[in-house]
Each structure stands twice: as structure tokens, then as C-alpha cells.
Amino acid sequence: MSDVTTELGDQSENPGGSTSNLGGHAKSPASPVTLETVYDAAPSRWLWLLKWLLAIPHYLILGFLWTAFVIVTVIAFFAILITGTYPRALFDFNVGVLRWSWRVAYYAYGTLGTDRYPPFTLADVPDYPARLDITHPEHLSRGLVLVKWWLLVLPQLFVVALIAGGSAATGGLAGLLAFYAGVALLFTGRYPRGMYDLNVGLHRWVMRVVAYGTLLTDVYPPYRLDQGPREP
């Protein structure tokens, strides 16, 4: 119980894992979540209108994968509680599900950022224009695992609900931006860069929260919007 108290004290004093610097900038741990993209200024004007149909095979498979994701997360919870580590095979599977989901969201109505069809794989695809990676932690807190997924992450969940409407794929502000981008493509043939950068930044925020809330990291997601294709 002392482990829980100590960890909670650290989080409550500094929920973002950062140390205030009165001189200006705050220091925070480097995020283990890396979400990066390649900007395409001129995807197809009309293909986005059909992507709901083209992405159906992915949605069907992801339905099964997310069921497995929940089961694996429960198993990982007990593994972390007992050993303080996230079993590598389970970790890689769950990161793969997030990676697959991100590629589909980027292709379809989460971003509309590419016309290249997403691959059917959990593995990283280095040349695909939307990539996600999460560093496997050597050790995770046994105390935090009891509270971070429902209590500590709660303030961030309100932000995620606004950003993604409860979905990391197509809802909320990110989905609205993707729709406006589709309209812009239809009439101008170009994806507005500012709209794109903001959309990717919103997804980056969501993915950091998802990684923390599903026990993949102990690094609390910063309240910071890092826009653009590349990590800061």
C-alpha cells in the first residue's frame, strides 16, 4: 500500500511527470509514444467518399482485435501487479493493435491523410505514411497499475472525449477536421496544411492517453498539443 501512496503522491504533485521551471520551459519525461506521418498535400479529390466502403474489411478485423486487446490488457494488469513488468509478447500484440488502428484511422475518416491502403498487419511498416511505436518499459509501477487506468487518467479522458468523441478513429474534433479536409479536397484538390497538422496533433494526444490508460507506460501524457507530422 505504501507503493500506491508514494506513486499517487508523485502524480498528484506533478500529474504530467514534469518539473516546473520558473524561467519558462517545463521539463517532462520523453514520451515513449511515437506517432509520425508523411504529409501528402494532394490526395485524391473523390476517393475519400468511398473509404467507408474500402475500409470495411479492416473494421471487421479490428473488431476482433480490440476484443483480444481488452483481454490481453486484463492479463497484463495482473502480470504487472505481480512482477512489475509488462510481458513482451502481450505488449507487442497490443501495440500492434494500436498501430493497425492508427493506420486505418489515418487512411479513413480519422485524418484522410493518404490514399495508400493500410496493410493487414500488426507489425510496423516503415514505408507507410502513418506510423506508431511505443517503447517497451523495463519496469512498471505495481502501485500505479491499480489506479492509473481509471483514476489518474480521468482528466485526460475528458480531453480525449472532446478530441475524438470517445473514438480514436473518426469522432470529435479530429473527425470534424477530417470532414472539412475532405470537402477542401473535393473543391480545391489540396489538403490544407494547418488543418492537417492540427489533426495529427490531436491524434498524437489521444494515442498518448490510450497508451497510459491501457497500462503500456507509466509516463503521464502531457497536456500539450504537438502538431505536425514529426514528434517534437
Automatic annotation (TrEMBL):
- InterPro entries of this UniProt entry? DUF4389
Q: Does the keyword Nuclease apply?
A: no
TM region(s), chain numbering: 56-82, 145-164, 170-188
Segments carrying the region annotation (Disordered) are 1-28
Polar residues bias spans: 1-22
Keywords on record = Membrane, Transmembrane, Transmembrane helix
Q: Which Pfam families match?
A: DUF4389 (PF14333)
What name appears for this protein in its UniProt entry? Answer: DUF4389 domain-containing protein
